[in-house]
Amino acid sequence: MKKAPRQEPQERLSVTAPKKWAAGVPAVTHALEYSLQETTVGRTATTLLTMNQVGGIDCPGCAWADPAPGHRHRNEYCENGAKHINDEATARRITPDFFRTHSVSELGRASDLWLNQQGRLTEPMVKRPDADHYEPISWHDALELLATELKALDSPDEAVFYTSGRASNESAFILQLFARVFGTNNLPDCSNMCHESSGFALYETLGTGKGTVSLDDLHHADLIFLVGQNPGTNHPRQLSALEQAKLNGGRIIAVNPLPEAGLLRFKNPQQVRGVIGGGTRIADRFLHIRAGGDLALFQGLNRLLLEAEDARPGTVLDHDFIRSSTSGFEAFSQHVRTIAWEDILTATGLTRPEIEAVRDDVLASKRIIVCWAMGVTQQRHAVPTIREMVNFLLLRGNMGRVGAGVCPVRGHSNVQGDRTMGVWEQMPDSFLDALQQVFGFDPPRAHGLDSVNAIRAMREGRIKVFLSLAGNFVRAAPDSALTEEAMRRCRLTAHISTKLNRSHTVCGQTALILPTLGRTERDIQSSGEQFVTVENSMSQVHTSSGRLEPASRLLLSEVAILCRLARHTLGDTAGIPWNRFEADYGAIRHRIAQVVPGFHDFNRRVARPGGIQLPNPVNEGVFATPVGKALFTCNAWDMLRAPQGHLVLQTLRSHDQWNTIPYTDNDRYRGIHGRRKVVLVNPTDLTELGLEKGQFVDLVGVWTDDVERRAEDFEVVPYPTTRGCAATYYPETNVLVPLDSVAEISNQPTSKGIVVRLEPTHSRPSPSPP
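and the corresponding structure tokens:
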């Protein structure tokens, strides 16, 4: 059944009170409504009943872990996962007629929502130099065009190969292999913009860039911190794990500048108590923290724990663990005692009794987990903040044992797997040595470009070719106007994509759209039907097998596109069996097993129900740091201060959104309906700023350069944000994030710490163009 194209929505805002609970029957209803708007009843049943099941389709959304085989619900998905999978399974199609009708210029003026709603891409398209329309091109000619541009570069480092967490392990491994055989480590990925800070902080302190906990650990923790995350919208299946923790007697502390419905109460639609009962209270304490105050909070807690040990020697800290498994305690202890309480309270916006109450919860708990997401990682002091959270856990030995540890919650289905497969501009020599031994070439050793540095290089004309494997780079990146200008300076831009997005409208001189199979679709190669693998946030690797027929007979898989591009570009000189890799993904997994630690006997082990649990040395008591122990660190910070008449702005997702793509203009849990261009401001701040509910303002960024960054015509909504802090949706406000405003060490954009002023406008905005 072919669905009719949708029209550009007319933005009319209505506001209701924010919800005080998440999920329940409305979540099921909204998931089915959206799914059936996109595709048929039969296809919806196929996707949802096989989603996250053994041998089924892995959710293309978040990277939350699945329960063990035999313990999964028949409906093992959330509202947003259902929307995401059926957004991909849509019956709408984009044909060459669409591109003949709509110019690139016209598409560039359309909303992100409208572009996504046009449906699946069906055949390769090219925009020629000086043209304003895409036109059809054969696969052979498209790949030959891209290969010719790559071979014409003066240096391999004039190309960038980007990927998002939607890509499978197999395609990610092939991408990094091709890039390194070609001769560059320019392999930026979406981790650069979401969890890069986590990786740097955890590698330094624990010797691993990944979390250390499992679902079972969460179920059995005494105390769980949720810092800078909103599970009700961004990873809703986490709420089931938190509910189980509460039923087992655990306590939860939520730390966030906004009260979020999922942090308050959860009505599990898979349980009777969630359908006809009141559900489960999630947060026992809600710390309404000031944006950017998380580091100060944990320093305050650590100081209180040290002082409690002073008062009751030998009863608070785990001295045996500190002596045997850590280094740097004395310097850390001296440093944290110097942090003034006045600074801690100013930075957090909390009272000392509030922080002392949390200390009491900590002292009553033997097993503690700290979870965090982009509310932490997209701050200037993100790396020191995560290091301080590690300090907090080390003090009482909450590392490497059941029910305790660190839990960075990834926001895209295989973003962690892409990094494991080598998609990183700074892979260690051990990985590159293994590539050399297995494939017989000498990989480049100089570090390549991350996402921010890739934009800088494009702006300066040092990058001629940009290739993206999945994702929507233009809308994920900061400083939107600068990023778009940089992309347009490329000689060629190419995107391997399932659906239309803004990046396809921001073209180099020549631009290619290379349409690919979605994760929901059957992938049949010459050796038979294939499956792919993914890695979730808890280092479990499992299979994903598509069940639907492809949206077009002209689609190729990600692996096939990359292998064919490698043949066009490299020929037979590399001696790598690209043909065999395309024909049989098991051949790729065989090589992965030879290169990547923990993947031995990959093909056999991953086929077992539940797949593979990758080893984590921390849970074996091994810390792969230079000193062989976990490291206490000393972390300094400067509080982000907004001048008089300004606010600290954070960008966030709406509930009906996945990453850069809105599915509707609604944000049900926050009570926002019909419009995305809103700014949420504390009512007291509105009064002090002389603004009123419903007033239209421009958001004007304040940064150290002379560039005016302005997001126009946003409607003011009073909301219980922390005083001095405001919030609004991305990607519409990525324009306000300066390219040079990045986290220390990790170079990750600081989308949770933007100083802005709200400048009143004098007229209501016109509806978006059709």
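(Above: one complete record from the training split.) The longest strand covers residues 709-718.
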